[in-house]
Amino acid sequence: MVIAEAQEGLRYDRKAVEAVIAALAANFGNRLVTSRAVREQHGNTLTWIGNQPPDAVVFPQATADVQRIVRLCAAERVPVIAFGAGTSLEGQVNAPRGGISLDFRDMNRLLAVHAEDLDCVVEPGITRKQINEQLRDQGVFFPIDPGADATLGGMAATRASGTSAVRYGTMKDNVLALKAVLANGELISTARRAKKSASGYDLTRLIVGSEGTLGIITELTLRLAGIPETIASGVCPFPSVEAACNATILTIQSGIPVARIELLDALQVRASNAYSKLALPETPMLFLEFHGTEAAVAEQSQRFGEIAQEFGGGPLERATRAEDRSRLWQARHDAYWAQCGLRPGAYSLATDVCVPISRLAECVTETQRDIAENDLVAPIVGHVGDGNFHVGLMVDRNDAQEVARVHAFLERLAERALAMDGTCTGEHGIGQGKMKFLPAEHGEPALDAMRAIKRALDPLGIMNPGKIVAL
Amino acid sequence: MVIAEAQEGLRYDRKAVEAVIAALAANFGNRLVTSRAVREQHGNTLTWIGNQPPDAVVFPQATADVQRIVRLCAAERVPVIAFGAGTSLEGQVNAPRGGISLDFRDMNRLLAVHAEDLDCVVEPGITRKQINEQLRDQGVFFPIDPGADATLGGMAATRASGTSAVRYGTMKDNVLALKAVLANGELISTARRAKKSASGYDLTRLIVGSEGTLGIITELTLRLAGIPETIASGVCPFPSVEAACNATILTIQSGIPVARIELLDALQVRASNAYSKLALPETPMLFLEFHGTEAAVAEQSQRFGEIAQEFGGGPLERATRAEDRSRLWQARHDAYWAQCGLRPGAYSLATDVCVPISRLAECVTETQRDIAENDLVAPIVGHVGDGNFHVGLMVDRNDAQEVARVHAFLERLAERALAMDGTCTGEHGIGQGKMKFLPAEHGEPALDAMRAIKRALDPLGIMNPGKIVAL
């Protein structure tokens, strides 16, 4: 019985899946699980996108396991889907055509640390918190922080970034090299540990952000940063979102190397005050962090304070004690849960546009007007130093009219960002949820090139089918 | 008559070339040139790799011209080769199978500057000096400096970097988006101006470093940096190359954001003293540059001075006057010409390995021993903050024995770098000269993936054939 729409070359049927499951059971024993509960946990669970569970979940323990699984699946043309922590937001882990989910829970080792070279080698199932716990003694850390305690494999696959990208870049900038199993079961190693190279096509950056549709990452070499001598955080109120955005623009332009600069609009501040027991004035806020020597941090925060004042903001209230800093950033990371508290029972849906920073104030204020005009409950948080912001739409899914208004809002938001030379996703990726925006964002010739690459590396269409580009 | 070896699908013959030349003449008039002198100028002229001129040179003035040329060539399966300033070092502009060279001399405009967003849009024929002259008034600059006044299209195509990459990254990090004409004549636009995006495959990074083998760049959106408040340069002597490398390692590890940190070994210092009329002690030297606020620059250079002292180096002699700084960096950029002065009539051949910085001292000292043991004249300069160094081999091409010793040395150098987890090219690219090192550096599965991508995007094999991967 054919149980999913055929993809070009994809002969996916129940018999094939059963053959793969039998072979996997013989190879992996109780590391193969087919229970409904476990399968459902391995489909999308976090967002409005439906749960599409795989047919089975297998827990590889080594790269050779991944190669064996992919080869078994390729032989029967059964999809393979990599799974990290399940924190992706656009349905990246769903199995719309069934198939086998590879859960990297057991491949979570820190394999090597080269502190002198500021790099380390990890298995893809390690999470960002695990890495930093294990690195702390050596004076180095991995700076990318998407909020969720995602796995590094998942973060690389979705080209994640987060609050510290303004200073340290995104996963694209912090994966030095990786190993990945391709659709033919071959293992590629994309680069050496040298800090730069002009040798051949940049396979590292091709796999980063490809969401498991071109290969399955089995090892990552990551750039690290030295733990700064001094870290200072701070909060700074502004009279308007526009003033906060303009202060951010001038901060970046002035070359002040802020490590984080995060916007919370007044509604988000209210939500976070309630959820995280803060006592901030309910006005737009920037949360900031400065890294450097003591003198550099003092100079940076003073200069930022002066800029804030120019736009009617301030004063910058500094938090230098580690526990105060942690409390602040925990509140920022809990923004999602705080949003949920604004409208109990409602569903939170996170958008993710990113625009050139010169258009940020305009994009945010137009979006706020749109929210108000459509009677939506939707606080805004943003990695504003990068021009990236998230609208947290609190949706009553039982109200069909509201759901329709939300869908129309999402289309307008993407169009607004694209019209400003921006992108429909700064960091969440495409998955299933944003495929519809790709033609407008990239144009058909570039999409055709992506499809050609997909077909070249995955001619059977077994690698996480139904994500990014449909063949 | 078949005048070149057939590439898969490449039916290259004289009749086809004549048909293309006739069509181009009809379209482009005197912007098509077939004189021997001009054709030879458009083959490789700078290095030991032979000159392989194209059959004709055409000067496009707009993206639509490039599309027309590529379509005419595709129809007859005639190669197309992009040409910028001709400063590539591995034969990237050669036409081993003949074909049409596209010289971007007339497409050299700065199309837009977005100072607020720290980016600009350029045509590929603009050179790095032209860009910076035109940007200066706006308080921003393009930081990548490979030494030669290369075009930005060429720099992107070869993934160039140079002296300032330690602070500002390579072309991979500084091209935000690009437009390129593919082998089918279609124009792709790889990304928007947003500072980051998680949308689709990273076509920008795929084209950067692909040396015209996947597409021809017709527009680039570049990241800019604010002109620093203060720039200070300096020279710092060391008792040994090892001491200079170790001071560099500690500088990078300590997070001192040096803008440039360049090694010259004693022989190079002697050569530069003679050529650039410097009066430096003939001992290994670091040339440095610091960017930032006055206080930050003062702190950085003081901290560097302390590190230098730890390794028996110093004192750091600072040059803050613009003319002294220019003189210093001009001398660094003239290292090649200075080398030529060491052995008049000899030929200079630049190597380009890059290793993890922890292995740098070892790699350089082993290489120096190798040079001495083989009686070669070969000063060393290096972008040591990145672990990248160049041996300038002064070769007497009439001495067959010496040429053989040089070839054996080149093989050992590449093997040494690869054994240290390094690359055979930090910034010069593969071209024709380094194709032989690709299997050892990347392994067959990764090379196969590169070949699959090449075939997918250039099924006829017309895009700069015979470079990077041979089909």
Structure, described:
The structure is a homodimer of 471-residue chains. Chain A has 471 residues and is an alpha+beta fold. Chain A is 37% helix and 18% strand. Among the domains of chain A are: 109-226, Uridine Diphospho-n-acetylenolpyruvylglucosamine Reductase, domain 3, CATH 3.30.465; 230-419, FAD-linked oxidases, C-terminal domain (Vanillyl-alcohol Oxidase, Chain A, domain 3), CATH 3.40.462. Chain A has helices spanning 14-28, 36-41, 63-76, 128-135, 152-157, 165-168, 171-174, 203-207, 241-253, 266-276, 294-310, 322-333, 335-342, 360-373, 400-419, 438-442, 444-457, and strands spanning 32-33, 56-58, 80-83, 100-103, 110-114, 119-122, 140-141, 175-182, 187-189, 215-223, 225-226, 230-237, 260-264, 285-292, 317-319, 347-350, 380-383, 388-395. Chain A has a seven-stranded antiparallel sheet, with helices on both faces. A five-stranded antiparallel sheet of chain A has the order 5-6-10-8-9. In chain A, strands 1-2-4-3 form a four-stranded mixed sheet, covered by helices on one side. In chain A, β8 (175-182) and β9 form a beta hairpin. Residues 1-11 of chain A have low confidence and may be disordered. Chains A and B meet through β9, α8, β11, α9 and α11 of A and β9, α8, β11, α9 and α11 of B.
